[in-house]
Amino acid sequence: MDFTGAYAPSHLTFLLEGFLVTLQVAFLSIVFSFTIAIIVGVLRYAKIPGVSQVLGTIVELIRNLPLLLIIFFTYFALPEVGIKLDKFWAAVLALVIFEAAMLSEIVRSGLTSVEKGQIEAARSSGLNYVQTLWHVVLPQALRRMVPPIVSQFISLLKDTSLAVVIALPELMNHAQIINGRNVNYVIPTFLMVAVMYFVVNYALSVVSKRLENKHA
Fold first, then answer.
1. Terminus of the chain with fewer CB atoms < 10 Å: N or C?
2. Which residues does the UniProt record annotate as the domain ABC transmembrane type-1 (predicted)?
3. Mean pLDDT by 10 residues, the chain (216 residues)
């Protein structure tokens, strides 16, 4: 093991550049997937005839596919039908598709966890269905969703490493390049990669606990 060589300033800078790409992919995927998940989760909760069933089928299909397969599909298959994405956006799209399906189920479960008595009380007080959903159901559901949603965000950040299969210049890709220069860099490099992932994911878990305690 060569810690001195592995942790040379040029190598650490290279890893940080890769980690920046990882964080960019994760951030965009979180924003887009959560937005879609809210819409899909609410539509499924509303049980609109036809729409709810179709969305439920799509969600179950995606949830039972490997994320790696979806990444291959967005990068290698979509160009065959005229949709060509670069590595960055192919990775983002794959993560959005997969995570939106996972998060939408969390949203739907959170909405259904709100007691029917509160919904009936809101309706009887004069609120219509949309107002009840917006002012009564959604605020309570979101508080209950915080822990599983943050847990899913943490999984999303770790899942970005799968984009190494399409040579996205993210953290794992840069770590492999450094390791290829000297076999003695492998353990030190992967230890540094582990620290980088841990710091961000631990910060997310701390935020999740604080939010949970705040609304307890």
1. C
2. 19-208
3. 89 95 96 95 88 93 95 95 94 97 92 82 78 81 85 92 94 93 92 95 85 66
The pTM of the full predicted model, rounded to 2 decimals, is 0.90
Total residues found in the chain within this entry: 216
Measured distance CA(108)–CA(105) in Å, rounded: 5
4 Cβ contact list (under 8 Å, min separation 6) = none
Distance in angstroms (rounded) separating the CA atoms of residues 64 and 76: 20
User: Do the beta carbons of residue 107 and residue 145 sit within 8 Å?
Assistant: yes
Contact, 108 vs 142, CB < 8 A?
no
Neighbours of 19 (CB within 10 A): 22
What residue type is assigned to position 56 of the chain?
Answer: G
Radius of gyration of the chain (CA): 21
In the chain, DSSP finds a helix count (H) and a strand count (E) of 10, 0
132, 125 Cβ separation under 8 angstroms: no
State both tokens at 199.
């710091």
Residues 88-120 as b or e (16 or more Cβ within 10 Å = b): bebbbbbbbbbbbbbbbbbbbebbeebeeeebe
CATH homologous superfamily of 3-214: MetI-like (1.10.3720.10)
CB-neighbour burial class of residue 7 (10 A; exposed 0-12, middle 13-18, buried 19+): middle
Residue owning tokens 């309706």 = 123
The pLDDT value given to residue 134 = 80
